[in-house]
Amino acid sequence: MVRKEWAARLPAVKSKADLVYDNLREGIVSGALRPGDRINMDELARTLGVSKIPIREAVKRLEADGLLDSRVHSGVVVAQVDQTEMRGVFLARGAIEGLVGRLAAEQVSDALLRDLEETQKRMRASLRTGDTGRLAELNSEFHRRLAEASGYRILADLTEQLLLTVRRYRIVEPAGEQNWESVIAEHDAIVEALRAGDSSAAAEAAEAHIISQAGHEVSRG
After folding, report:
1. How many CA atoms lie within 13 A of 125 on its CB side?
2. How many other β-carbons are positioned within 10 Å of the β-carbon of residue 187?
């Protein structure tokens, strides 16, 4: 029997299905694969040099994640993200981000503040150059770091899943410059509350940020 402490030291080896999953997921998140695009299983197998078995395994996982849909006549396609779904996403984000902000403030560290401030600095630089793709990545990085600081893996996992949906939606409904300016200013309010160690203010700022963004995102279309 392998002792637990030994097993923990073993390097993680990804299976072919894992590699296919990562490849497709990155394509969906980056926008290389857009909502409604069909996934050609044969072509994908040839491109990645694998059999159809790991392709099917990866597709099932991505369907469970809500990133792919199987349709009778269309085959496997990248899932759509609509206004109704986005309303649910922002309702969930509001509740989670408020809790995350409160918990992060209760155990705030200099390292957390430095990380968030550096991300803010990079977001401002990306806004000046109009690099919206980088802005989306950095926004996710800000919220991901905040969720990690909450101390609960489940909150970090839920945050990651919801951020993924927002990023996919913004591929077809990009956030404008004014929206990104608001995002950065709202992040600043969260950081200031964290710096003060004010858990109530941090929760309020985090929730207010999501409510504001919901107004930008789900009022369109």
Report:
1. 8
2. 23
Tokens of 8: 């923990």
**Which residue carries 């995002």 as its tokens?**
183
Within a 10 A sphere around the Cβ of 164, how many other Cβ atoms? 19
Asked if 211 and 151 touch (Cβ cutoff 8 Å), the reply is no
3-state SS assignment for residue 76:
strand
Cα distances (Å, whole numbers) of residue 126 to 41, 114, 121, 158: 36, 18, 9, 26
Are 34 and 167 within 8 A, CB to CB? no
Cα gap 91→141, rounded to integer Å: 20
Per-residue pLDDT reduced to its tens digit, 154-170: 999 999 989 888 887 77
Report d(CA 139, CA 198) in Å as an integer.
22
pLDDT at 1 (0 to 100):
40
